Amino acid sequence: MGELVGAASGLGLLVSSFLPWYSLLDVNVTAWQAFTVVDLFIAAAALVSLSVGIAVLFRISVSYPVAGSTVATLFGAIALVLIIVRLIDPPGSDLDIEFGAWLGLVCAAGVTVGGYLGMQDIASGHQAASTG
To answer: What is the CATH number of the domain that holds 99?
Structure first.
């Protein structure tokens, strides 16, 4: 279940990166336009979490969800921290924070939690298999 939460959040994170994050007067700026490094972590977190969801959904690999959930948790946490920093300290002065930034924050948290839950599901599954 955690992998699917992470994948849905990853999709939302990817979509949010193309929505307006900041505005100044009538000009909207997406994450891709506003950032030079943060957007790369957003994309990495989104793509890794999506790949884990795809691997689980289509039963492509047994071992990839373990590693993928770990990497998704790491990149999701980094993206979450970077987004929080950019909400507190926008990349320019007098910028208004738009819906995309808030959606990105929620989705980055979802990627992090989904990855963490995916690791827990896997660990408990292996433990149950070895004791049962």
So the answer is: 1.20.140.150
Of 84, 79, 95, the closest CA to residue 29 belongs to 95
User: How many independent structural domains does the chain possess?
Assistant: 1
- Residue 62, domain extent: 2-122
Strand pairing partners for 96? 23
In a domain, 115, yes or no: yes
- C-alpha 10/C-alpha 8 separation (Å) is 5
Q: How far is CA 103 from CA 9, 65, 110, in A?
A: 10, 25, 10
Q: What is the pLDDT of residues 77-115, one digit of tens each?
A: 999 999 999 999 998 888 999 999 999 999 999 999 999
pLDDT digits (tens, 9 = 90+) for 35-81: 999 999 999 999 999 999 998 888 887 778 888 899 999 999 999 99
